Amino acid sequence: MKQWLKKWRLVSVFAVLALALSGCGEPFLSALKPAGEVARKQYHLMILSVSIMVAVILVVVIIFLVAIIRFRRTKAKENMIPKQVEGNHVLEIIWTVIPIILLLVLAVPTVAATFNFGDTAAMEKKDKDGKPKELVVNVRSNLYWWEFEYPGLGIVTSQDLVVPTDQKVYFKLKSSDVKHSFWIPAVGGKIDTNVDNINKFWLEFDSDKAKEAGNVFYGKCAELCGPSHALMDFKVKTMSKDEFAQWAKDMKNVGKDGVTPTSDLAKQGEELFKTQGPKGCIGCHAISPDNSTPEAARTAPNLTDFGERERVAGILEHNKENIKKWIKNPQAYKPGNKMPAFKDKLNDQEIDALAEYLMGLKVQQ
Ligand SMILES: [Cu+2]
Q: Using one digit for the tens of pLDDT, what is the confidence trace for 98-141?
């Protein structure tokens, strides 16, 4: 009875562990749950190569087992010498041709898919006004934040990539400091962002999968870039084509002064924000979506629609408390990032006003 109880305990521990581990990982943060054409093709390639590998391992293990069992040393077969097959042409042809066939089965779809993922010819097509016909997003990576510029729409945003579903979105990617890598595990990638060349590719976001994921996908930097590399996250907000057109229009409607604050506290925050010099924020952060500012001057995330962000700085839950904590001491949350601390420059009331202002930066009508 006691023994049985012991076993039962062990089994229940494993059962609970299995349950807990199966809850690991964010939904749609996995390449094994594809949510777009690129990720799906990549997934199929993975399945194909794993299947080939498993088949080869199985065949080799079976032949190996047969050999050691059939030809093991026994009393009865003490003096038996198995048939010698050295130099057997048929066998040699078989074990040369089979790997060649397997490699071809693996190579043909892989090479075809690789060229397909890199086929961005359509992104250069211009309409009669010289604007790209397709949706193009210029991605720029920075220690430790992401900028997304829509050249065809004349707008810039940061940290939250906004895209329409069920259409190809073309990306031009580069970095402004060190090498990073752009990866949306459930949708596709990863692709390096480099300082001295532009990489291009496309992605497509499925509307039904996006709906399941709550219209937000997770994006990551996938190239070790510094102490806060693991915190260099971004989010992808998906919407229908119409909603996207409306979002772009709402963004465009924000003038160069940014979204107008509504409360007195937020107005005070706006004034503090726009103060020039070391106490203010406007020297680094833009609050208008205009993309005509040169890139070199865009040294911090564009905050035009910051009130609608999914996270603060890509990682903290988006609420007023976290914004205040971030402004006071950004280094505590993302070591090595380029924003100075304001805990000694501004008092609590001023930081409260700033957070109030930032929470109100909403563009969607
Ligand atoms: Cu990184």
A: 999 999 999 999 999 999 999 999 888 888 887 888 999 999 99
42 & 94 share domain = yes
Give distance in angstroms: CA of 264 to centre of ligand 1.
40
Distance (Å) from CA 192 to ligand 1 centroid: 10
CA distance 300 to 3: 64
Reported as a single tens digit per residue, the pLDDT across 30-72 is: 888 899 999 999 999 999 999 999 999 999 999 999 999 988 8
Stretch 203-223: mean pLDDT: 93
- Rounded to the nearest whole angstrom, what is the distance from the C-alpha of residue 180 to the centroid of ligand 1? 5
Q: How far apart are CA 281 and CA 303, in angstroms?
A: 11
Distance from the alpha carbon of residue 111 to the mean position of ligand 1, in angstroms:
27
> Do 135 and 213 sit in the same domain of this protein?
yes
Average pLDDT value for the chain = 91
230 is a domain residue: yes
C-alpha 223 to ligand 1 mean position (Å): 5
Do both 49 and 120 map to the same domain?
A: yes
Which of 244, 237, 233, 232 is CA-nearest to residue 308?
Answer: 237
Distance 268 CA to ligand 1 centre (A): 36
Distance 51 CA to ligand 1 centre (A): 32
Whole-structure pTM value:
0.87
Q: Each residue of 123-151: b (16+ CB within 10 Å) or e?
A: beeeeeeeebebbbbbbbbbbbbbbbbbe
Instruction: Report CA(317)–ligand 1 centroid distance (Å).
Output: 20
Transcribe 167-214 into DSSP letters. Answer: SEEEEEEEESSS-EEEEETTTEEEEEE-SSS-EEEEEE--HHHHHHTT
Q: Give distance in angstroms: CA of 230 to centre of ligand 1.
A: 6
State whether 124 and 199 are in the same domain: yes
- Cα(228) to ligand 1 centroid in Å equals 7
What tokens does 292 get? 């005509």
